[in-house]
Amino acid sequence: MDLKVTENTETLPAGPSSAPETEKAGAVEAKQAAGPVLDISSTYFDFGSVYLYSTATRTLTFYNNGSRDLTISNLSMTNSSFSYSSGSSFTVPPGEGRTITIRFTPYFSQSYYGSLMFRTNDPQYSSGSVYLTGTGRSYTP
């Protein structure tokens, strides 16, 4: 939320028998941006080392700091070892957040890289991505 400081001029009575005095007062006014404004809890997740065929999870929250509904759409993953818990689009009302779960399930002993890609109706950020990494770890007796 942007804070805007304005200078107001108020007329205050000095007392019952005297003339009013003019005083400048600094007023702090919270200004909410017009339209949707995206804020995201993270742009990178490292899942670390995960045993093969096991699943590790992380949560990601999309916040709307604007004054109109924020639409998140066209969610997709660039690597099938990563997945997410919601549909491909959803709406976040002003002043609220929407949390999704991102999962990593490795099938081979190797490093994995991917991204969660998405589009928004925020005029400042029409698209975005969250970078993902993890390593598949085999069981060793």
Which structural class should the secondary elements be placed in? mainly beta
Q: Could you tell me the strand content as a percent range?
A: over 45%
* Rg value: 24 Å
The helix content is under 10%
CATH homologous superfamily label of the largest domain: Immunoglobulins
Order of helices and strands: EEEEEEEEEEE
The CATH architecture of the largest domain can be named as Sandwich
The domain count comes to: 2
Q: What name does the CATH topology of the largest domain carry?
A: Immunoglobulin-like
Terminal Cα separation, in Å?
A: 53 Å
- Overall number of strands: 11
For the biggest sheet, the summary is: 5 strands, mixed
Major β-sheet strand ordering: 4-11-10-6-8
The CATH class of the largest domain is identified as: Mainly Beta
Give the count of helical stretches: 0
Uncertain ranges: 1-30
Global shape: elongated
Mean pLDDT over the full residue set: 83
Helix-strand layout with pairing:
Elements: E1 2-12, E2 21-31, E3 38-40, E4 44-51, E5 56-64, E6 70-77, E7 82-84, E8 90-92, E9 97-104, E10 111-122, E11 125-137
How would you characterize this protein structure?
A 5-stranded mixed β-sheet has the order 4-11-10-6-8, with no helix packed on it. Strands 3-5-9-7 form a 4-stranded antiparallel β-sheet, with no helix packed on it. It has a two-stranded antiparallel ribbon with strand order 1-2. It has 141 residues and is mainly β. It has strands at 2-12, 21-31, 38-40, 44-51, 56-64, 70-77, 82-84, 90-92, 97-104, 111-122, 125-137. The chain has no helices and 11 strands.
